[in-house]
Amino acid sequence: LTERLQNAFSGLRRKGKINENDIREAMREVRLALLEADVNFDVVKDFVKTVRTQALGKEVLESLTPAQQVIKIVHDELVKVMGEAAVPLNKSPHIPTIIMMVGLQGAGKTTTAGKLANRLKKQEHARPLMIAADVYRPAAVDQLVTVGQQLDVPVFEMGTDHDPVDIVKQGLAEADKNKNDYVIIDTAGRLEIDEQLMDELARIKALAQPNEILLVVDAMTGQVATQVADGFNQQLDVTGVILTKLDGDTRGGAALSIRAVTGKPIKFIGQGEKLDQLDVFYPDRMADRILGMGDMMSLIEKAQQDYDTDQAEKMAQKIQENSFDFNDFVDQMSQLQNMGPLDEIMKMIPGMANNPALKNVKMDPKDIDHLKAIVYSMTPKERENPDLLNPSRRRRIAAGSGRNVQEVNRMIKQFKQSREMMTKMSKGNFSGMEGMLGD
Ligand code: GDP
Ligand code: MG
C-alpha cells in the first residue's frame, strides 16, 4: 500500500503546478492502491471522493507545493477514517473491570489477553485475573496457563469439561474474593462465525456484563478481517477492536476499513508474538505508516529517550551541506547501536520502511563494529574526504582494520550511497513530510 501510494504522489511531486487532470490521475492511483491493500470497496469509494473534492479546491491548485497539499489531505483523511484519536479502555467505576476477548480461532485472543494483562500490570500496577473459557481445545487452557505463568498473572481454569458460562461465573467469584481489579476472559473461536459460537459468547456476555468486549482480528486477513469484525459486532455489539499481526508486511488496509464499517474504535495493535508487543492504536501514526513516512512518532519518541538531539541536529545540518563524513558516520552508528535492534530502527526511518533493499536486512551489531574498525584505520584526512580513498589507501585500510579489501570497498560504496540518499531526502525528495508532521 505504502509503495503504491508513494508512486501515486511521485507523479505530482515531479510537477510544479498541477491541474485537475493530474489530481484525477493521482486519485485513480490512490484508489487502486487502497483496493489492492484490501480496503473495503465502499470505504475506498467514500475516501477517494472526499479527498478528490478537497484536492480540487482552489488552494491546492494554486499552491506552490501542490503535491504536499494533496498528501496532507490524504493523510488527514486517513486519520479521520481511522477515528482521529486513541480511545482508552473502558473502566468500571468499581472493581473489577471486566474485559471479554472474542474473535476467530488463531486471531490472537489468548496471546492478546496475556499482552493486555501484562500492560495493565506494568502501567497501572494492576492485579488482573485471566479466565480460561475456551473449552474446545485442551491446549487452549494450557496455553493461557503458560502465558499466566510467564507474566505472573493468575489464571482461573476448570479444564475443558464445564460449560464456559459456568467457568466464567466461578472465575468472577474468584476475582471478587481476591479483589482483582481486572478480569480478562479468554473465549473460544471458530474458523468462521457460526451460530453456536455466537450463542455461547452472548451467554457469557449476559452473565459477565463486561465493560469491554474486545474483538481480536488478524490484520493479515485483509478483507476477511473487516467482514469478521462486522459479523461479530452485529451479534455482540463489541466495544473495541484489537488488530493483531501488524508486524508482518501488513500495511494497515484492515485498519482503514474496520473503523469505517463497524464504527467501533481500534484500541490496540499487536506487533509481534511477544507479550510486550501490544501498542495503543494512534490513527495519526498509522496514517504516517501507511503513507510510508515510517513510524515517525515512535522514532521520535525513541530518539528523545535515547538520542542526543543536539547531535542529531548537527547531523541534519551536515547532511544538508553534504559535508557528512566518515567521522559522522561512526558517530551515528554508535548512537544507533545504543538505541536497540537496528533493523527495527531502520524501518522507522521515513522512506526506509518500504525500502526493498532493507526487506531482508538483518543488522548485526558486529557489522557495525567492523565498519567502525575500517573507519578507525583511516587517517583523519581520509575520514573527512572519502574521495581520497584510492586503491592503495584502501588496501592499507583493509590491512589495518583486519577486514578484507572487498569489505572496505563495499563499505565506502554504501557510505557514498547513503550520503547521497540522505542529501536527496533532506533536499525535498521527501518534502511534504515536514508540513504534515508539524500539525
Ligand atoms: P487465538 O486462537 O485467537 O487464541 O490465537 P492465539 O493467541 O493462540 O494466537 C495465534 C497465533 O498468532 C500464535 O502463534 C500467536 O503467537 C500469534 N500472534 C498473536 N498475536 C500476534 C501478533 O501481534 N503478531 C504476530 N506476529 N503473531 C501474533
Ligand atoms: Mg485461544
Secondary-structure topology with pairs:
Blueprint: H1 2-14, H2 20-36, H3 41-55, H4 58-62, H5 66-81, E1 97-102, H6 109-124, E2 128-133, H7 138-151, E3 155-156, H8 164-178, E4 182-187, H9 195-208, E5 212-218, H10 223-236, E6 240-244, H11 253-262, E7 266-270, E8 278-280, H12 283-290, H13 296-306, H14 309-321, H15 326-339, H16 342-348, H17 356-359, H18 365-376, H19 380-384, H20 391-401, H21 405-429, H22 433-438
Parallel strand pairs: 1-4, 1-5, 2-3, 2-4, 5-6, 6-7
Antiparallel strand pairs: 7-8
Helix pairs in contact: 1-2, 1-5, 2-3, 3-5, 5-12, 6-7, 8-9, 10-11, 14-21, 15-18, 18-20, 20-21
Domain Signal recognition particle SRP54 helical bundle: 1-82
Family: Belongs to the GTP-binding SRP family. SRP54 subfamily.
Organism: Lapidilactobacillus gannanensis
Q: Could you say what the CATH architecture of the largest domain is?
A: 3-Layer(aba) Sandwich
> Can you tell me the number of structural domains?
3
Structural class: alpha/beta
Can you give the mean pLDDT? 82
- The amount of beta strand, in percent, is 5-15%
Largest sheet: 8 strands, mixed
CATH superfamily of the largest domain: P-loop containing nucleotide triphosphate hydrolases
Given this structure, which CATH class of the largest domain is correct?
Answer: Alpha Beta
What is the approximate shape?
A: flat
Helix content: 55-70%
Q: What ligand molecules are bound, each kind once?
A: guanosine-5'-diphosphate, magnesium ion
Subcellular location: Cytoplasm
Protein name: Signal recognition particle protein
Keywords: Cytoplasm, GTP-binding, Hydrolase, Nucleotide-binding, Ribonucleoprotein, RNA-binding, Signal recognition particle
EC number: 3.6.5.4
